Amino acid sequence: MQTSDLIRILPEIILAVAGIVVMLLGAFQKQNAGRMHPAIALLGLLGAAGAIAYQYPWRSLDPAFGGMLELDAFSAFFHILFFLVAALVVLSSSEYVAQERLASGEYHALLLFATMGMGLMASSNDLIMIFIGLEISSLASYILVGFRRGVATSSESSLKYFLLGSFATAFLLYGIALMFGATGATNLTEIHLALQAEQNTVTAMASPQLTPLVGPVPTALVGLSIALLFVGFAFKVSAVPFQIWTPDVYQGAPTPVTAFLSTGSKAAAFAVFLRVFMVALEGSAQDWVWLLWVSGLLSMVLGNLAALLQTNIKRMLAYSSIAHAGYILVAFTAHSEEGVAAVMFYLAAYALMNIGAFAVVSHFGNRGERYVEMEHYAGLGYRAPLLAASMTVFLLSLIGIPLTGGFFGKFYIFRAALHADLVWLTVLGVLNSAIAAYYYLRVIVFMYMHPAAEQIPVERVRPAMGFVLIFSMAATFLLGIFPQAVLDFASQAAALLLENLGNGVL
Amino acid sequence: MYQALFFLFAASAVGFAINLLIQRHPIHSALSLIGVMGSLASLYLMLGAEFLAVVQVIVYAGAVMVLFVFVIMLLNADKEEPSDRSKMAKYLGLPLLFLLLAMITVVIYRQFPEDAMVQFGDFPGQTAAIGRLLFRDFLLPFEVISILILIAIIGAIVLAKKEP
Question: What is the ipTM, given to two decimal places?
């Protein structure tokens, strides 16, 4: 271990230290500690972002910790996205944490630890490290989901998420074990080389007892391992048929946590999904592309159709999040450089608009999340014009209306799919986004064209929440009008991720 | 000799696992779990993974099981009443599970010729090698796991402490 190794994980170290400080603060300072927590969390996130910026340009030529971590442009892109998401969630939840009397220190500490786990996921280049990063972020989310202890649905969704999540993790772990059995490596680059040369790397372990295993890579075992890895990752990104948990968990979780899960966790899961499948398994793409094809299509159809029937806004957004996982899988199915860039762009655009939408839902929800039904939104267009207007922007972006980030996200996805000759998937995807327009527009119709049956109280917007709304709205428009900068960054990262493989260098 | 022992322990692991599922009382299930752990430890030992076998006994059969039994005792858990099981799980779940297991078995069996399969008992002790791997090549994962444990501790406290 050298200093350069430590600098590579400096962002994670900063986050971990900030998390521990936030956690310990409550033990030593009883009064007014709650006010300090968000500030320290934000400082930690800022410091971690600084540590990422310090390592520019992100062209990892010497991977840290013997190839465990890669801080390339791909991982830098996701790190920045996670820090942004976490910061927006911290800002938008300050009101919520106070009003629901959640344990503020633990809440912010877990949020920071989860972000740290997601950062590790994005930069790890080894299946063992990926597994541990995934577990750190998942375990923290299981607890965050159950944070409203007095509410039965919150505990229920936490338990459901935990049980199903552990089950999915077991599949992932079995897939990792079989991949190690087949190729003799857990490092993604080594797996890629082993699959390319069709020789497993067991010899490197220099154990004479293992000689019978040296030889060609057993392809059926690799196929089985791919299937099991797919199950694990598809669960985390909530793609059909592993989406069952999503609506219940998203509905039961505290709203800011739901925003975090549907943007940060989903992006982190897609980051490892991309890295494992595009780096390690690109050679056997013919084995997994059809899995993504089917799962992507089913996610779009099922997510959108089920969302049509929902009356609870959080539940509707949960089904919409399944559908969006489907759109992203369309670009993934293209398994090209363009496809990877489209996935990255979409995740960024989706994160910003979805955080905004959930921030509005969280604000309207009021104490105990009482007002989260569609009918409560009736007439809000006139009683809270600014909030309703920002909600409208986020929903229009979720539909994919031009001038918003959602439009270019979908545009790049379908362009990548067309360039990869996925005509049918593209056609079905476009049809699906037309169906989706119905249920998003329904909320807007409720806000502006329905008379209010019940006057729900609308609290004043605090500065922190106002900042989140303005920031996400500005970013959504910015991505919709000048998408080029972010797309260029994503394209470069994707090119770098795949180019290194072509040369066979690490 | 090894073969006979393998079948003995494998059969007892599966038997205890099934017993774990059908027992109604949590204590009986917990005791069956010890049986599963013990049988697995014996299998590891026969494969020459003596470190894994010892850890299995100390951590799982020892520490984890003690916690299980404590929790059952503190909750004063009684017989479980069968709840309404979903029809889909009953009629679709089990066959699909067996299908998956059969597929995995077939793939593994087909892929490896018999003489390439692991031979019992001819592995030398490798505890030192595990230590070297753990503290040199896999140092980062080993250290990062401490955060995972910290999260678990925070979670247990947050979810269980009294409302202020």
Answer: 0.90
